[in-house]
Amino acid sequence: MGEEGNRAREEPALVQLRITEPEADEELTGDREAYMASVLAKYRRNLVERTKHHLGYPYNLDFEYGALSQLQPFSINNLGTPSSRATMLEKNEYWGYITNCGTEGNLHGILIGREVFPDGVLYASRESHYSVFKAARMYRMDCVKVKTLVSGEIDCSDFQAKLIENQEKPAIVNVNIGTTVKGAVDDLDLVIKLLEESGFENRFYIHCDGALFGLMMPFVKRRERLRHKFIGCPVPCGVQITRKTHINAVSRDVEYLASRDATIMGSRNGHAPLFLWYALNRKGYRGFQKEVQRCLLNAHFLKGRLRAAGIGAMLNELSSTVVFERPQDDEFVRKWQLACEGNIAHVVVMPNVTVEKLCVFVDELVRVRSVWSSGGEISPPCIAAEVGRENCACLLHLHGQ
Amino acid sequence: MGEEGNRAREEPALVQLRITEPEADEELTGDREAYMASVLAKYRRNLVERTKHHLGYPYNLDFEYGALSQLQPFSINNLGTPSSRATMLEKNEYWGYITNCGTEGNLHGILIGREVFPDGVLYASRESHYSVFKAARMYRMDCVKVKTLVSGEIDCSDFQAKLIENQEKPAIVNVNIGTTVKGAVDDLDLVIKLLEESGFENRFYIHCDGALFGLMMPFVKRRERLRHKFIGCPVPCGVQITRKTHINAVSRDVEYLASRDATIMGSRNGHAPLFLWYALNRKGYRGFQKEVQRCLLNAHFLKGRLRAAGIGAMLNELSSTVVFERPQDDEFVRKWQLACEGNIAHVVVMPNVTVEKLCVFVDELVRVRSVWSSGGEISPPCIAAEVGRENCACLLHLHGQ
């Protein structure tokens, strides 16, 4: 499938076109302008169409930034150390910046961990985002993959066993606040408790991958995490927050900029903070709270509808990611832009995903599903290993167990 | 100074403001909308003002993307392997993608070098961009700094000596196509010749940091490099190009995306390729050629005006970066957004920098300079070490040598 958001691969109209040289007389006739306008119009129609059926990836497509279009003509590039940004944080001991994407946040957080503990071992559950393992390769760190529970959460008994195996080296731990596929939230308190009990006191560093739920979490349960995807923004970006005391480990003075280089990317898209500022101001705390509650309700609604239709489905607590049996029709998967892994697929219920959209989706899934079974009896596949027996709709688990 | 492009630190109006919570009745009265509109209007005026006096950093601010504003409302996020993009390249053996900025291109190119030669030593001239040395630290690579000539080019005799000292390990070389401060172009052919003569045949990897000049170079001399800054684009971005045969060394399959992860950042701003496509199509080869020629001419004009005013100044061949004595007035430096290093400052002559703007700049510099000398005789500082004796305007070098 290979696409997230509106991935350009699906839009043959624009990006695969060669750059063509303007003819000398085109400037006079305006033919070139007309040609480009027609390509853009086609691309726009395609984006409208794709946006209609977007379910599989955690992007809030429900945004409106009309007032910001006046700034589009400006080059806004943020360089050097983003100290002034820290004023958005409440306490003096934090430092943060707006990244180009979630991967950059993970690269930055894990790099700080390595600079604080140069011989530290990176621990991450096997359902962590792929950028966590990429960071380990890039930074030449020892990396230990920890097992997960059926829910997708880190398996803390395996974590403890792995800690004891590597007791001589400090621990750098990636904790997921909403895993990519199942939306599982690792138990941060338990992770810290195990570290302390296993003799790692003052020898551990934790990076929280806030992913999607970092921003939703404060509205369902008190945790200090912050991420962006929920906000809905036309450019990818993220928020990285760390302790001020650690940031010097990755900073270097750059005379040319008369500033310090403390981020991963030198240049940062200056439009992204504008979008975030605009959205945060328009919606406010109460606005976000309402949206998060609606998402969780809608996710429960979707899970209920799927189960009622005899389809295995799981929804983690605090999560708006509904995991269910993988549709066997690639065309259907592409149309709804579902992300699949093994026997499962998921829908991430974002603010722009309405109950009506979910109904259309389930109805269509039920319809195509009966086609796969050639009109005969539908025998749901067993996905107990992926979602747990209680969430599986196969004949064995539906009635027995 | 700490700013490049329109760095937000200078705009107190927007980013340093706290996010304020909307009052319950604001939604009804529209007060919130009015407040935000006034903040944005102030920010916009500030950007207009900053753009007027932008000289020090290599951004082409002369762009017009009116037709693209219709796409601003869409979330366009490119993930996975950007294979389809490769169609913009002429030959099958190349692979490339559009990055978030120049730093990402350097991080990517050097990472490939390390994966091809895991025990390779990174060689980079001391005037290379800071992200090159950051990459070495991040990737835990041995890194050898090579001396530079007065022009800013890599000192090839020092390079050869360093190669011989480290002969047992493969060489990964960063070659600059326009250094950050002096706009110097390293001699790629000579670098390759030295590597082969020093016993590194088939044991070296070269990353070219195209920086600004990568894109200008094809229009002044035949070299196959491509970069972005010259194009003029409202978001930072870059182009990374590498050999297809090498890209597998840094790629991993990601089932969730049903694609391969081959870039540094997972998400890539999908608007950036649109801006590039639009600009390339509108201007075409001839359009860029004209712009590059105008920039080089204007840079020569600026250097001539500075020298005529008794100010030491240097302009490298093939370069539009004019280096000159550092103004002693911080206010002046800030106003014109000049980048300074040690005793020198520079102006990067981009397409949006006109002869008129340069005249205003030189006139003002001459005026404030006479203020520094308190109306007495101006004694130009010696900057021969930075720009060479022939470009220095100090009393010793101006007349004697």
Largest sheet of chain A: 4 strands, parallel
Helix and strand succession of chain A? HHEEHEHEHEHEHEHEEEHEEHEEHHH
CATH topology of the largest domain in chain A: Aspartate Aminotransferase, domain 2
Largest interface: A-B, 106 and 106 residues
CATH domain class name of the largest domain in chain A: Alpha Beta
- The total strand number of chain A stands at 14
Q: List the strand order in the largest sheet of chain A.
A: 4-3-5-6
Keywords (chains A, B): Decarboxylase, Lyase, Pyridoxal phosphate
Modified residues (N6-(pyridoxal phosphate)lysine) (chains A, B): 229
Cofactor (chains A, B): pyridoxal 5'-phosphate
InterPro entries (chains A, B): Group_II_Decarboxylase, PyrdxlP-dep_de-COase, PyrdxlP-dep_Trfase, PyrdxlP-dep_Trfase_major, PyrdxlP-dep_Trfase_small
Please give a quick description of this structure:
Chain A is α/β, with parallel strands linked by helices and 401 residues long. Chain A is 37% helix and 15% strand. Chain A has 2 domains: 77-268, Type I PLP-dependent aspartate aminotransferase-like (Major domain) (Aspartate Aminotransferase, domain 2, 3-Layer(aba) Sandwich); 288-391, Aspartate Aminotransferase, domain 1 (Alpha-Beta Complex), CATH 3.90.1150.10.
How would you sum up this structure, described in words?
Two copies of one chain form a homodimer. Chain A has 13 helices and 14 strands. Chain A is globular and about 65 Å long. The first copy, chain A, has two domains: 192 residues, 3-Layer(aba) Sandwich (Aspartate Aminotransferase, domain 2), CATH 3.40.640.10; 104 residues, Aspartate Aminotransferase, domain 1, CATH 3.90.1150.10. The first copy, chain A, has a four-stranded parallel sheet with strand order 4-3-5-6, sandwiched between helices. A four-stranded antiparallel sheet of chain A has the order 11-12-14-13, with helices on one face. Chain A has a two-stranded antiparallel sheet with strand order 1-10. The two termini of chain A are 35 Å apart. In chain A, helix 3 crosses helix 4 and helix 5 packs parallel to helix 6. Chain A has 401 residues and is an alpha/beta fold. In chain A, helix 4 links the parallel strand 3 and strand 4. At the A-B interface, helix 2, strand 1, helix 3, helix 4 and strand 10 of A face helix 2, strand 1, helix 3, helix 4 and strand 10 of B. Chains A, B: It holds the Pfam family Pyridoxal_deC. Chains A, B: Keywords: Decarboxylase, Lyase, Pyridoxal phosphate. Chains A, B: Its cofactor is pyridoxal 5'-phosphate.
